[in-house]
């Protein structure tokens, strides 16, 4: 068995990353965590996570950047806010998960062909193009980019949606697409200015 | 009574039956709904994973357009309801976010002062219309029927503005006003899996299965929901759930459909035919 280091030296932790997490909106109370585990207990998805929410919060504030950003945990969070309302220290766990997802996409460290980050990006692209989201087209696009085989297994659902008149192949568009793009473009400028700082 | 209506993408797509039944019920109750002019997608949960400020700006454009009318906004979809309320709150609490979003809106000739109230149809039905007024309109009470009231996550969490976070009751009261009974359903605010049902089915399907199984075990003839994504997950994936776990054959309807039926409105106008698991057998011969 190859020898692997299981515990980090103090100096190997990324303290800048920990400070970055705390600076995100929702990250303010991160240091208050008492590791009680209520978040993990209320989370309906913690049983599938590589690190439960309690462990992820601890890793994030201790600067375990690589472990946190490449974890499945952040992508399994379905944003149900159960942890957030039960947390005795009022830590905004869901918003921390969002911040970590954004950072993982930005740094390009999310699991490849894992559909959730792909969905998030395609969703964004569809809004930029049309201003609204057509669920049918979004789902087709998602499966073509990630998993052909699974797409075939969805034909039953597709047929049922068609039968009940709940499916449409025409993108629904807003009228003033230019107005929306202008707003989003203005924030691109804002984001660039922030990176330059 | 007059409100602005923010449908969101799902109510124009897979959640059509929610729009149809909501509009029919509110019309019959004498409440006027005006669709927000040229609304755009709220950004839902997905866009927040891409860009935070932009997701507030997406919701901000809708709020800016709504503010011109000076009316409360009704957002029936749980994701839209949460995103619009979250945006409203963060624009209020964080000067930095507000400055960026308002500046971006201004480049397109829009402005937002922060005065819009975003409300859920349950809130409006209970607190503005009132149960007494609703009771007067009940013509075909759903006597003897038992339903599981399923609220899902995002209408009471994290902002409990009109109901309790752990044990919400507004929908229970609507179901009872419609003449039906509610089963005790402790999973009423548990997550349906959201978009995971499609993206990571091994995790998502299980969540939907647990909700359906528990409702059935407690004697519910149907699950009643307030959210297009919950409805989609619990209704649309039942054949896959049957293959993986067990067949449950439990209809999943919107609270507005139940109320509309009890008010004697025609089933087709309430989108009853759009359920993939048909509710005909449950509601036939009442």
Structure characterization notes:
- The complex is a heterodimer of chains A (197) and B (286).
- Chain A is mainly α and 197 residues long.
- Chain A has 2 domains: 12-107, Orthogonal Bundle (Fumarate Reductase Iron-sulfur Protein, Chain B, domain 2); 115-196, no CATH class.
- Helix content of chain A is 58%, strand content 0%.
- Chain A has helices at 15-23, 38-42, 53-61, 65-69, 73-76, 82-86, 93-107, 115-130, 135-146, 148-153, 155-163, 177-196.
- In chain A, helix 8 (115-130) crosses helix 9 (135-146).
- Chain A is globular, with a radius of gyration of 20 Å.
- The termini of chain A are far apart.
- The model of chain A has no long low-confidence stretch (mean pLDDT 90).
- In chain B, the strands form 2 sheets. A 4-stranded parallel sheet of chain B has the order 2-1-3-4, sandwiched between helices. Chain B has a 4-stranded parallel sheet with strand order 6-5-7-8, sandwiched between helices.
- In chain B, helix 9 (170-177) links the parallel strand 5 and strand 6.
- The two termini of chain B are 32 Å apart.
- Chain B has 2 domains: 2-119, Glutathione S-transferase Yfyf (Class Pi), Chain A, domain 2; 136-277, Rossmann fold, CATH 3.40.50.11810.
- Chain B is built from 15 helices and 8 strands.
- The model of chain B has no long low-confidence stretch (mean pLDDT 96).
- Chain B has 286 residues and is α/β, with parallel strands linked by helices.
- The chains are: A mainly alpha (197), B alpha/beta (286).
- At the A-B interface, helix 6, helix 7, helix 8, helix 9 and helix 11 of A face helix 3, helix 4, helix 6, helix 10 and helix 11 of B.
